Amino acid sequence: MSEPLSVGIVCFPTLGGSGIVASDLASGLSRRGHRIHVIASAPPSRTLPVCDRLFVHEVPLASPPPLQHPPYALALASTLVDVTHEHGIDLLHVHYAIPHAVSAYLARQVLGDAAPRLVTTLHGTDVTHLGGDPSYRSVTRFAVERSDAVTTPSAFLREATYRTLGVSSDLPIHVVPNFVDTDHFAPASPRDRSRFDALFQSVKGDPGDRGAPVLFHVSSFRSVKRMTDLVEVLAAIRKRARVRLLVVGDGPDRGRLVQRARELHVSESLCLLGTHGEFADDLRHADAFLLPSETESFGVAALEALSSGVPVLGYRVGGLPEVVTPEVGVLVEPYDLAALAEATAAILFDEARREALGRAARARALERFGREEGIDRYEAFYRRVLADGDGRRA
Question: Which of 217, 218, 200 minimizes the C-alpha distance to 209?
C-alpha cells in the first residue's frame, strides 16, 4: 500500500469553481488517509468534514501603517513557510495562479532544500482576464513556469494559457478535468416544483407563479457571469408563459441584476438566495440551469446541474462545450439573448425532451466526471510529480 501524502491545498474560500474543486479534493484525499492542509484567507464556503487528517489554516491578514491594504500574497507565502516547517508538507497544490502561484514560489525560495513540490492548477480568469493584464502577466507567467507541474481543467484553458499568459511551449500543461460528488448532486425522484412556492412567497413573489417552472443559477456575480442576461431571458420567456428564476450566490453585480429585474418588471419572479453552500436539494428540483457566462474555463456549476439531472443552457464559450454536449443541454452563439431564451423555453415546455436531457446529463456526469475517479487522477498525478523530480513528465 502506498504511503500517505502530506499535501497543502491553497485556494480561495468562496463558492467559485476553484474553491469548490479544491475543497472537494481536500475532503476526498483526507478520507483516503492522506494528511491534508487547506490554506486560505477564511474557512472554505463548501463544508469540510471533521477529520483528524484534515486541517484548515487561515492566512492572517492585517494592514499596519503605512500599508493601505492587507498584503495577502506575502502573508500567504509566510503561512506556507510556517505550515511546511510545522507539518512537513510533501507537495503544495495551489488553485488559481494569482497570487497563489507567486506566493508559493516565494515560500519555496525561503524553504530552500525543505521546499515541497509545487502543482499549480489554472482555473480560468487567472488566465483569460487577470493573466492577460500587463500589470500581472510577467510575474504570473514566471511563477507558473517555475511550478513543478501545471494543470488545467479543460483543453480550452490549456491552449489559452499558452496564448494569453505566454508561457513557454516547452512547459507541458496537463488537462485534469474537474469532478463532482454525484451522490450529493443527484436527481430528484420525483421532481417537485411546489417546494419553491414558499421560497418565492417569502420574497413577495407573484402568487400566480405557484407551480411554475424554475430556472436555476449559481455564481459569484462577477461581470464575466453576465448576470443581467439571466433576467433578460426570464423576461423574454414570461411574455409567453409563467416561469421563475432562483439564483444562488452573491458578488459585485448583484445590484445590476436587481435593478435590471425591476426595469423588466420580473422582480416578483426572481428569488436571490445569497451565498448558500447547501443548495443541492433545491437544484435537483429545478427544470433547467442557466449559465450565460462571457466565458467558462470548464463550468463546475454546470457539472453540478448535470449530475443533478438538470439540463444546462448557456453560450458556446470557452471550455463549456467540453462539459455541456448536445445530448445534455443547449449552447447557443455568444451572446444571442433571443436564441438563449428560445432554447430555454423549448426545453421548459417540452416535458419529454427535458426529462430525456436530464437522464443523459446524469449519465454523462457519472461516466466522465465522478468524484472518486477525479480524486484518483489527482492522487496519481501527485505521486508522479513527487517521483519525477521536476515533475515535467508527469
Answer: 200
Placement of cell 433547467 in the chain: 288
CA distance 171 to 316: 28
Outline where 239-279 has alpha helix (H). Answer: 254-263
The alpha helices in the chain, defined as continuous H runs, are: 17-31, 72-87, 100-111, 125-128, 137-145, 155-160, 197-202, 227-238, 254-263, 280-283, 300-307, 337-348, 351-368, 371-388
Residue among 205, 354, 335 at smallest CA distance from 273: 205
C-alpha 186/C-alpha 240 separation (Å) is 31
Question: Are 191 and 223 contacting, i.e. CB atoms less than 8 angstroms apart?
Answer: no
What mean pLDDT, rounded, does the chain reach?
93
Q: Let me know: does 286 contact 216? Beta carbons within 8 Å.
A: yes
Reported pTM: 0.90
Strand partners, 391: none
Calculate the alpha carbon distances from 237 to 201, 219, 339 in Å: 21, 22, 11
As a whole number, mean pLDDT of residues 58-79 equals 89
